[in-house]
Every structure is written in structure tokens, then in C-alpha cells.
Amino acid sequence: MASISRMETPQLRVLRLLNRADVATTLVKWLGRIRTLDGTIVAPTSAKAWDSGLLQWIEFTKLNGVSIQGNGIINGRGQQWWTYSDTDDDENDDTQYDVEFERMPQVKPTALRFYGSFNVVVAGITIVNSSQCHLKFDSCQGVMVHDVTISSPENSLNTDGIHLQNSKDVSIHHTNLACGDDCVSIQTGCSNINIHNVNCGPGHGISIGGLGRDNTKACVSNVTVRDVNMFRTMTGVRIKTWQGGLGLVQDVRFSNIQVSEVQTPIIIDQFYCDERTCSNQTSAVAVSGVQYENIRGTFTIKPVHFACSDSSPCSGITLTGVQLRPVQISHYRLNNPFCWQAFGELYTPTVPPIACLHLGKPAGNNLQSYHDLC
């Protein structure tokens, strides 16, 4: 297998390819044989190189047994999309930078994407400053990500660390994720997801969703997130769904999560909306069978937020060993735990007490099986 080294001429070839307009396709054809990445792949900053925009920068499609590993770096140089000026330059240079920024296409590429592939391994590499998502798996089965570092500033918009969609049998472990959006985003069609021994922060935590946007069906099952450290993230472990959706999130376990200065460590939000206004709708993606075990640490706004649908209440929520204490920060207003149409069991006393959780099952709520709904 070929490899890229900091001292080898192949890296210079890659850099030349990266400055051409056909950046994605040419690079991927050449990278298709690479097993070890030990150098640095740098994205172009010229708007001309991106043409009208690309959804993916580096993409691997319909492969079996592909492995990308090593100590190398993929640098998306997303600053060209995030900012309008470079404070290190003088005024004239800033003006030129602004002009160049305005020419950048509105479509921002994911740095590294795998589509329709089996038995994928990504190990050891670093991905930094992607303009959008850093690492994405779509319609893949048998994925292993470990010892990977992903990093971008906390104010870089929509820069998810790892994004999963329609993918099964995924393991992510011993990985460091710091970004401007979800450290890990788990979307519809995902099942058998195992995330453990991960550091997350800054970022928006580890999220399932948002699911069911534009009245679509969304199904996620058998997700385990355990032995995770979160530092100064917006949320901790979160499930978020749009009103009007259909489907089910079922069998989710969040265990041994250490949070430090996290705004809201535990969230289920069936009224998720990232637009100015969202219309009220009756149907919802159902949420059932969510376990919270040993979620401990400090929060800065609210310990728990369970906002569930009237028509499809959350059921089977269980809490064991939840201990969340406030951090007194002057510009934050602390709130008590919040619950709406959330049903389940408290197996041990919680700190603070979550008295708003309805014990037992919702009356008259006959939740259909995953097979029936999905």
C-alpha cells in the first residue's frame, strides 16, 4: 500500500492536486490505495478551486475493507468560511481576504466522508478545521474509529466531529473531539452504535438527532454511550426530534458520563427547532427505553431537560446514580430540572431531585414496536 510522508514527493503531488478545481475526484482516485497517512493534506483556500461548491472534499464510496490510519493530518482550513477577516494582517490584506471570502461557495464541504462502504477503519489520524462536518459515515456497516483527534474552534458553525447516518455496527473509542457542533451526531437509520472512552469538548455534546424534520420518518436503535468525559459543552447526552416526525428512538444507554461545566447535561427535546419559528404539530418521533447511569459532574444552566410530546410521551426513562451540581457563574441563570410528558423510574435518589419525572407508564399509551414503526 502507498503512504504519504512529510518528506516524500507524493505529498507534494497531493498538494498540487488540492489546488485544482477537480480537487475531490482527483484526490480520491489517487488516495484509493492509501493505507497509512503520515503527512498533511491541506485544503485549498482559493475559491476558484471549489468551483460552485462541493458536499464532500475527500470521499470514499462503495468499498469493502478500506482502512485509513497513521499519524497524518487532514486540514480543512475552514477559516475561509467561518470568518471575514484575519486580525494578524494589516488593513489592506484584510480587505483582500474579505473579497476572497465573499467568493467562497455557500456549499461547505465535509472533510472526509465514507458512503455505502463495509468494514471501514479510521485510526490514529487528526482532522482539523473542516468547513463543515469533519468525518461522516453514510450508509455504512461495520465501522471502527479509534485514537482519532478532531479539532475546530467552538465558534465554528456546523462543524460536527463525527456524523453517522443510515449506518450500523459502529464503534467509536479512545478519540478526542473538540468542535463547534455535536462531537458525535447520530441520525436516522443508525443502529448498534457503541461510543466509549471519548473526550468531548468544546462542542454540543453527543446527540441523537435532530430526527423527523419536514415530517419524515426517523428510526434509531441500540445506542450505547459510556465512559465519556465532557468539558464545557453546550449539552451532554441529548436526544432531539422535530415536531411532525414519525418513527422511534429505542434502547439507548448513557453510562458513566463525567461532565464538567456543561450547560445542560441531560436532554430529551421533542420540540427541537433551529429556525426562528416552527409550527406546532401533533405527531412525533417516539422515544422509549432510555437509560441514564452514573451521569455525574457540574452544570451551568440546568441539570435535566425532558420536553416530550403530548401525543407521544417519552416512556421507559430510567435514572441511576445521577449526581449533577451547579457551577456558580455570574452570567448564567440556574434552573431546576424540567419534565413534560416524561415517564419512567428513579432507581436511586438523584442530585438534584428530579421530582418532575412521572413514575410508571403513560396512561393509554400503547407504544408500537420498533418493527411496526420502522
TrEMBL record:
Molecular-function GO terms, alphabetical: polygalacturonase activity
Primary residence: secreted
Keyword Secreted: yes
Biological processes annotated in GO: carbohydrate metabolic process; cell wall organization
Stored SMART domains: PbH1
Localization per Swiss-Prot or TrEMBL: Secreted, Cell wall
Tree of life domain: Eukaryota
A Pfam family per the record: Glyco_hydro_28
Keywords assigned by UniProt, alphabetized: Cell wall, Cell wall biogenesis/degradation, Glycosidase, Hydrolase, Secreted
Family membership noted in the UniProt record: Belongs to the glycosyl hydrolase 28 family.
Protein name in the entry: Polygalacturonase
